[in-house]
Amino acid sequence: MIIDTTEVQDINSFSRLESLKEVYGIIWVLVPILTLVLGITIGVLVIVWLEREISAGIQQRIGPEYAGPLGVLQALADGTKLLFKENLIPSRGDIRLFSIGPSISVISILVSYSVIPFGYNFVLADINIGVFLWIAISSIAPIGLLMSGYGSNNKYSFLGGLRAAAQSISYEIPLTLCVLSISLLSNSLSTVDIVDAKSKYGFWGWNLWRQPIGFIVFLISSLAECERLPFDLPEAEEELVAGYQTEYSDIKFGLFYVASYLNLLVSSLFVTVLYLGGWNISIPYIFVSELFEINKTCGVFGTTIGILITLAKTYLFLFVSITTRWTLPRLRMDQLLNLGWKFLLPISLGNLLLTTSFRLFSL
């Protein structure tokens, strides 16, 4: 049997072309994910720097100023230092739970960023149940804290893990009810549809004005979910040394540190998406329709404007969270649970019933 040389060359070139297409396909799948991870990393570094500068201003002292200009590289220096620390493991602890716990906390929060729209058609995964996917995934993070506390073979750590689980359950229910109220008003669980629902009304179309009670409950619940002061009972240093992270060192301790700021950033982004109009310009459509259409253009300029607007609203909420940390004292554990079960849960449930009634009568 005689095979033509040109046919063999054509077959080889075709197979190479197909393999190159597969490689390009994999690259185009990974590029958005890596871009999002890079943006999140930069965002966390900015939050750490802002918190130190704002805290220094509130306490009338000088913040970080030597690591880079104005101390912007201080968080990067701290992370590099943690990479070279010794990895200490409790001799009688559960090594598997001890090692897996920090990773679960970080990964569960990172996945939540996939459903956040940073601009018009600029979202990694626009799915129909975006907000509930965030709630479902974020509820996995306290399991990692509980595993870390149990695997440390330390009473302080285990108590901190139990507090984290109890706190998450207590405040996740009011938070979910507030999200459900927003979904009823927008007729969708998609984060993109929620932003688009009343976008043409600008500032007056924000869900903040239609759901003021839900906004306050969501604000308090999100701070409790992030375990920020005055809700940082799982790691209260006066009571539990450092809570679930008492036995940790090196980069595992750094993962807990990063997870807390990742959770704070994702909560701030969801406040922006659900209540503050997302990427939309805050000027009503009827006044300047041309300006309103800027961030709906598909070009780089329109996308950049949308991202900047989203980040501006997000960091405004972050400023409120950071200021709250140095303003309010820490609650007791019984006060924290009473606030969640006896106040926020009935209020959020009543808000949901009012929203449902409004939707029924408006049909």
Automatic annotation (TrEMBL):
Its EC number is 7.1.1.-. It holds the Pfam family NADHdh. It is a multi-pass membrane protein. It comes from the Eukaryota. It is an enzyme of class 7 (translocase). NDH-1 is composed of 14 different subunits. Subunits NuoA, H, J, K, L, M, N constitute the membrane sector of the complex. This is NADH-quinone oxidoreductase subunit H. It comes from Umtiza listeriana. The lineage of its organism: Eukaryota, Viridiplantae, Streptophyta, Embryophyta, Tracheophyta. The gene is ndhA.
